Structure formats: structure tokens, C-alpha cells
Amino acid sequence: MPLDRKTITGTEAVHAGESRTKLFDAVAQPIVQTATYSYVSTAEIVAHTSGKHPRPEREEYGRYGNPTVRAVEQRMAALEGTDDAILFASGMAAITTAILALVKAGQHVVFVRDSYRMTLEFVTGTLARFGVAHSLVGANLDGLEEALRPETRLIVSESPTNPYLSCVDLARLAAIAKAHQGQKPLIDGRLATPVNCRPADFGIDLVVHSATKYLAGHNDVLAGVLCGPQGLVSIARDLRGVLGSVCDPHAAFLVGRGLKTLALRVERQNASALAVARHLEAHPRIERVFYPGLPSHADHAVAVAQMNGFGGIVSFIVRGGLDEASRVVDRVKLARIGPSFGGVESLIEQPAVMSFYELTPEERASIGIAEGLVRMSVGIEDAADLIADLDQALGAA
User: Fold this and answer.
1) β-strands 224-228, 84-88 pairing
2) Torsion of CA 201, 204, 209, 213, to 10 degrees
3) Which residue in 213, 237, 240, 265 is the catalytic one?
């Protein structure tokens, strides 16, 4: 574990990467709602395209940049401790553009198999059609070195993963990648956020987030972000201009506003989720709880070594299987039934019913999705109220 592991403060969440003086003396970042930027003369165009304009950062067209978007990018780079960041229209746009920007036909990528299923679908389906091969390994990284090839370009994982919250040993992953030249590790950090873990501190090159989740934090906007070295991020930025997966300025404003309370929200969610996890682990109706803050979690030692907090997701298996888990979910009164996570409102879902509904029970079992599994995204409600609500739902079930 690096000795200088960074803890994000509320001050940084509010001010990092943001200019003190803003247009019209506004305190909040103004929303620059425009698709087109004008020039005063042909000479100004020539100065801009030649790189001699007194404001080289000035924008040309909305698909290539926006001041509101750029302010959020600068703050995210500061929070993640990277050179640069680029904002996208969604988390999927961020990770797919990053991969497309950095791999080509004939190359190879390695993915931890316990990753978001739409990301895996992109790799196994879309990328395969364009001649990019892939290998899948476990979150414990056993078999990773054997999976690497001379043509491997990226090693991609979430940490923690979803829904079982496996934690990848980031320092080990970075060391393996460094020992094999040309291979860049990319971590999806949406569950951790830079408050709980900064992968760059452990030698990880690229970090991607679904900003829809904890970064924006209010279940009201779609966005994604890629953070990393300027050289790699600039390649993705250029491709974003071609593919058009830009974040609109109003969505960027909402992400930026959400970032200001990120540290407060995540610290509250960390504490509440830990309390919920401890309570559920002792409940007779619960077969097993998955939360990296519990000593019973397989990756607890890894989580303690590299995380400042253990996140707001608690997964647990209800005794009795699918039907009993459904009764619990339906009886909960505070958490809404929904597929996302990371907002101020608690959400709850059954992966077997929602995320993996198209699979048979046998197929779900083959990939480790238990029929009685429930995933709860803990919001900022009082932990005692959430626990009491779960108790009444479990009692009724």
C-alpha cells in the first residue's frame, strides 16, 4: 500500500479544479448552453487553428468541448489525482470509447469476469466483430499472467465488483501490467468513488466512472467520465469528437453540483451501509452478506489495505430462494425497487429478477447469481430507519 494514499476532503470536492472567478461573477459554474461558438474575424480563426490564439482553450464547436463540461473534467482529474479527465454522455459511453480508442484489430484485452454485464457484452460481442480478442479472469487475479499475450493492450476490472463486491488488489494488478510492457490497467471505480479509493495512487493508468451513480448522486442525470494520463485521455477525447458521445452542458452542471457534496454523501453511505451489513449478518433470515467492510468478506484484507471506506452497496442472500427474496423486496417501504445505485435515495433489487432475468436459474447459478440474492444501494436516510425497515420486511417474509 502506498504511504501517500489520498483521502478526499469536502474542501476538495467543492473547490478542486474550479476557477475562483467565473463568468458574470457567478458562484455556481454557469451552464454554457450553446452548440456553436463564434469568431470575431478570420484572423482569429487562423490564430486559433495555428495554436497562437491568446486563449488556446477556447472552444470551436459543442462536440469538441464546452466550458461547463471542462470545469467538471478538471475537478474529476483533481479528485482522482490524474493528469486529465474527459466527460461523456453515460458511463457506458466512457468505457466503450476508452476501449475503442486504445485497442485495434489483432489486439487482445483481459477482463475480470465479475464486471458489468453490458461491458462484457460489448467486449464479447462488439469488439469481437472488429477482430479484438478477449480473455476473462477472476477478481483474485489468479490466472491473469497466464492470460496475457504480447498483443494484450488493456486489463480491465471493476473494484469493488457488482454485485458481490469483490475487491481487486490494485497494486498487484499494476505490478503485473508494468512487468508486461504496453499493457494498461483500467479500473471501473463507480462503486468506490475517489472518496473511498483512488486507483491512480496504486499505479493504475486509467479510471472510469458512471457519473450517473455516486458522482452526481441524485438519480437524475446520465454521464460518465474517464480519468488518466494526458496522452491516453487525449486519444479518447479525439475519438469522442468523432463518435459524438458528448455530455450536454446541463447534465455536466448536475454532475458538477453533485460532486460538491460527494465527500459528505459517501461518508454517510459508508457508515450506514456498514451498519446495515453488520445487522443483516446477524439476522436469522439471512444466509450470507457480501460487504467488504465485514471480516467475513473474502476480500476484506484487500479492502482495508486500499480503501478509505467500504461503499454504499450491501448484497445479501435471503433464506428460501427467489420467492422469499421477492417478498422481502416487496415489503421494504423506504428503499425503492430500481436497477441503479449511488443516489441519495436507497434502492433495492433482485439481480435474478432484474439484471439477469433473461437467464434460466441454471444459467444464473453458473455465473454465481444466487436466486435469493438482493442488492441494496444505501442512500443517506438514517441507518436506524433503514435497519428497522429491513427488519419488518424480513419478519413479514
Assistant:
1) antiparallel
2) -50
3) 213
